[in-house]
Amino acid sequence: MKKEVHISESEWSVMEFLWDYPLSTIGEIKKALVNTDWSESTIKTLVRRLVTKQAVAINDEESTFRYYPLLSRQDCRLKETKSFINRVYNGSVSMLVTSLAADSSLTEKETEELLSLIDKMGKE
Amino acid sequence: MKKEVHISESEWSVMEFLWDYPLSTIGEIKKALVNTDWSESTIKTLVRRLVTKQAVAINDEESTFRYYPLLSRQDCRLKETKSFINRVYNGSVSMLVTSLAADSSLTEKETEELLSLIDKMGKE
DNA sequence: AAAACAAGGTTACAAGTGTAAACTATATTT
DNA sequence: AAATATAGTTTACACTTGTAACCTTGTTTT
Fold this sequence. Notes:
The structure is a homodimer.
Chain A: H1 9-20, H2 26-32, H3 40-52, E1 56-59, E2 66-69, H4 73-89, H5 93-102, H6 108-122
Antiparallel strand pairs in A: 1-2
Helix pairs in contact in A: 1-3
The structure holds a DNA duplex.
């Protein structure tokens, strides 16, 4: 029986850090997220909610809890990507890619990367 | 001064229809959305919220209002796509495309389309 | 005309999200 | 030990979203 885990925008910031540094403490998370301007309370709330959602688990071998992700970044990304494509592009991947390619506001670098990627893929 | 218009998942269904059939009435919208199982009330709420958000406007030349989109589908798609990529892929378009290409759960048809698209683009 | 229906307007209510204060308990520093 | 800092727990509160009922008024059908 699968929980419909939805990770909100703010929660993603926490997850990103935990994916890079699993088994972090609140203090470490807080330090990593200084740029966000969130109060410590807010960060604790986000972590708690992620735990409730079973997206994050607690290791309490030490006196201070350490938090680590229970879901892989790739899985979460795919899940979000799918629901996004369904919502916005009627489920059509190619419409998304077309739209991306037509987006003139991509930076030079992004366009370049996209094209090179596309090139690489064509060869496989 | 720009409103931060966010169109929710349910609201997208209404917008999609209005993009295809601008100047529709509630009754027409309702007919188009039978598949959703929403009550008429729900549909009216969604339309009203879209009007409040200024994503949709009202033409009241006739006795029954006709609704039409104020935002283009392409603009909304781009906006959603950008915020999605920022949230989930740290703003990296190429990470998204890589992830898509690596997704084994794409259908044959999707993969095919993606590759052909990629192929076409490579030639431009 | 009376009844039925369609459309517009008002109100509702629970879940999720962004954001945080306050309280408590534990650990570290003076 | 007292003071301080850190972490964990509880509570809060406004806004958005999904979902809808109800009320009123105008229109169509019997």
